[in-house]
Amino acid sequence: MPNIGHISLPDFPLLLAPMEDVSDPPFRAVCKEQGADLMFTEFISSEGLIRQAAKSHKKLDIFEYERPIGIQIFGSEIDSMREAAQISTDSNPDLIDINYGCPVKKVACRGAGAGILQDIPKMVSMTAEIVKSTHLPVTVKTRLGWDDSSKYIVEVAERLQDVGIKAITIHGRTRQQMYKGNADWQLIGEVKNNPRMGIPVFGNGDVDSPGKAVEMRNTFGVDGIMIGRASIGYPWIFSEIKHYIKTGNLLPPPSIEERVRVCRAHLDFSIRWKGETLGIVEMRRHYTNYFKGFANFKPFRQILVTATSLQSIREVLTEIQASFGQEVWVS
After folding, report:
1. Is residue 329 scored above 70 in pLDDT?
2. Mind giving me the DSSP string for 28-61?
């Protein structure tokens, strides 16, 4: 069983990736119900925490049933990151995760997220300072390198382990690739199979089915898998992978009743946590995926992504269940 410091995880744990504007408490709740073993907050700006920005501090909200859960922070200044780690520690998560992987321009081009992959010594120094600043386990999520000419992840993982991180998650692309092309799991496997590595190594990138998860485990020997985009609107990916690992059989796709039930639960939590207006607006990105694969869903989607009242959304969900109750899911 892979342990992250004092945190015990099951054999081959499934991690929910920290995704900006996605992995908030309402989304984490439905993923936890479906079997996510370790989850993270959305990434939180170190500068936002230090300046007490309301949006950043709201992201520190965690709930007991979510445990184990990590707070993920990002930034480009060592002092700010150290202070942010201390603020995050006060929120009592189970671990602190450092984002060295976000490829978006407004983050990476300021030297944060994947941007720090252009300055490995700073990356190591920053990590060392964060480890010293908290009693919690510190983990890292990163990429293979900045571009094809700088895939130094095997050495980088060693150096981060040497300054005290307790686990590393590697997305199998460079920053230059963003999310294009195929993830390269070969290098992730090299990190995992490096005899110098003694901490859990989790792989991330393109795992969108139980078969793919098992293939990555068997081929590259990773300790577990982090799932991001494949879980959006489809939290069942976690239970499906677990069932397949345990039995060798694929679960049938969730029924329309199950999809509506989970979608309703997600929506209700979103409104409780964010208020009705924001909760309704931010739920819109999830509807298409909840009902992906059903023919003639488009008219319902149009209503869901424009409706402004909770009552009308609930009525549409009821109508969806009635309309598609006998329909076969087509993938």
Report:
1. no
2. HHHHHHTT-SBEEPPPEEHHHHHTT-HHHHHTT-
Whether the pLDDT of residue 235 is over 50: the answer is yes
**What's the rounded Cα separation, in Å, for the pair 51 and 45?**
10
Shared domain for 231 and 302, answered yes or no, is: no
Q: In this structure, is residue 331 part of a structural domain? A: no
Calpha distance 269→309 (Å, rounded): 15
Q: The domain spanning residue 101 has which CATH number?
A: 3.20.20.70
What secondary structure letter does DSSP report for 211?
H
Crossing angle (nearest 10°) for helices 310-324 and 256-274:
170
Provide the residue range defining the domain that includes 262.
Answer: 256-324
In this prediction, residue 326 carries a pLDDT of 56
Chain centroid offset of residue 37 CA? 12
Are residues 290 and 172 both part of a single domain? no
Q: Pick the closest to residue 119 from 178, 73, 78, 173 (CA basis).
A: 78
54 and 192 belong to one structural domain: yes
Same domain, 143 and 281: no
Q: Are residues 197 and 112 in the same domain?
A: yes
Number of domains in the chain: 2
For tokens 């995050």, what's the residue? 88
Supply the CATH number for residue 306's domain: 1.10.1200
The residues carrying an active-site annotation are: 102
Q: How far apart are CA 141 and CA 148, in angstroms?
A: 19
Q: Hey, what are 199's tokens?
A: 């901490």
- From residue 324, give the alpha-carbon distance in Å to each of 103, 189, 232, 298, 330: 39, 43, 21, 13, 12
Confidence band for 109, pLDDT divided at 50, 70 and 90: confident
Count of Cβ atoms closer than 10 Å to residue 208 Cβ: 14
Is there a domain that residue 67 lies in? Answer: yes
Could you tell me if 201 and 188 are in contact, meaning their C-beta atoms sit under 8 angstroms apart? Answer: yes
